[in-house]
Amino acid sequence: MQIRKSTSADLEQILVLYAQARQFMQENGNPTQWGSKYPPQEQVEQDIATGRSYVCEEDGELLCVFYFAVEEDPDYQKIYEGSWLTDGPYGVMHRVAAPGKRRGVASFCVAWCFETSGGDLRIDTHHDNIPMQRMLEKNGFVQCGTIYTANHSPRIAYEKIRETAARE
User: Could you give the domains of the chain?
Assistant: First the structure.
């Protein structure tokens, strides 16, 4: 497997991955996190245009798509019922769609983002997204509290840091 930046030539396949992920969520007790239309095509196109959309592929087949950047996320500025593990720079991962074509793909992508971020990665998920919560905890993420997205939807906030980045 390899990870690379998405291109506009990937758009059709990416939209299929997101549709498959939405169906997986609905079949696994999480019908409201992405509903039937998230992310909208315009968002996916913007992610690609800004260089923040990535795909994981193997033998020319796209297995996963996700947003990744080392940046301050406005939704992460306030955290409730807890606190972040660090106050320094961090990577963010959003809009992960790994609809189960191959086991371990999401973990592979999370590990790549963690290394690329420099050892501090934040991610959030819906309370009903049990498969994502399990995958994050299996990969060493710590539940830090609750954040609210721009549309005021609560999300469980997770962070993983290198031991050397731990808050003193």
Answer: 2-165 (3.40.630.30)
